[in-house]
Amino acid sequence: MKKIITLPGDGIGPEIMDAALSVLDVASEGQFEYEIAEHAIGGHGIDSQGHPFPEATREACLTADAILLGAIGGPKWEQSEVTPEMGLLQMRKVLGLFSNLRPIQLNETLIDRSPLKPEIVSGTDMMIVRELTGGLYFGEPKWEKEDEALDTTQYSRSEIERIIHLAFKQAQNRRNHLTSVDKANVLSTSRLWRRIVNEIAPQYPDVHVDHLYIDAASMKLVTHPKDFDVVVTANLFGDILSDEASVITGSLGMMPSASMNEQGLGLYEPIHGSAPDIAGKNLANPMSMIYSITMMLRTSFEEFELADKIEAACEAVMARNIMTKDMGGTETTESFTQAVITELRK
Ligand code: NAD
Ligand code: IPM
Ligand code: MN
After folding, report:
1. Residue 105 has pLDDT above 90, yes or no
2. Which residues line ion ligand 3, judged by CB < 5 Å?
3. What domains sit in the chain, N to C, each tagged with a CATH number?
């Protein structure tokens, strides 16, 4: 019996979590046994337990076989001293979730949903490997005064080495091409990053490596997306590049991710946020959460058939133009989810 900790969080988080769990429930019948324990995070943690990453949540996560997170944050807590985002970052740090894999896979039947030209996006299949527990997000000192503020970007050799090795291994399991993205023309952390990539490269002679500056990479990502296989980059650059890459698939609401620690614990979450503009309106696309679950099934549980079955059902439904609004459809979260469930029961 696998123990899955669910952290629905704020805004559309609980809506897409409910939808995706109901899909898992129907799909897994008789195939995969699991138990779910739900815990608070983000704004919900602040409101219910006075902390965005409550002690009970932390303890539960430490005993989990896998963790599913919806989304955190929202206008209600923007001005708070302690924010939902702090809880998310603390969780990543405490659990040691140093690597964040963000796949950008284009379903060819949905090619017309991208605002980009079909000939540009066709054939896109890339994996953004984002460093998740270092860099500008976590560097000290960090402070804010009335008229001045400071953030620090720091990376140690070991922090860079472990994410670079992971990215090379990803490339070996894909199309043997690694693009490292940095700002080595300006930043010293980037120069160290680039030096370490070049030092490690000979250990993976079957992988072709190239380097791009973040500004040029941002352009190339949407003009030549199929030139990329694995992209490895620092925390902040990966955050931005992956939201940009979502336009290739048509919507941020399609984008899952997997965060892993050195012990192999996985946390799976959409790359998007709590979408306050559509929260509570039954409009959210649950695909990001469903794909997060299929990443969990494959990565944490080796349930490949079950993951394939769920994705095939979703894709069959979407191929019939049954989609939520963000993808140009007319379905609600619930009606789309119901269509997937009906497809699974066929
Ligand atoms: P957002 O990702 O929440 O939303 C950006 C846009 O994408 C919005 O128009 C939203 O409606 C749309 N969108 C996102 N997910 C969607 C889905 N599943 N279906 C349909 N449309 C979807 O970004 P934001 O508005 O800049 O941030 C809102 C809050 O979320 C902030 O508090 C931010 O800090 C937080 N946030 C949390 C996470 C996380 O939990 N991992 C990630 C990003 C942002
Ligand atoms: C993400 C989010 C978070 C990040 C925020 C909410 C702290 O944007 O998961 O991509 O920047 O990592
Ligand atoms: Mn982000």
Report:
1. no
2. 239
3. 1-106+251-346 (3.40.718.10), 115-249 (3.40.718.10)
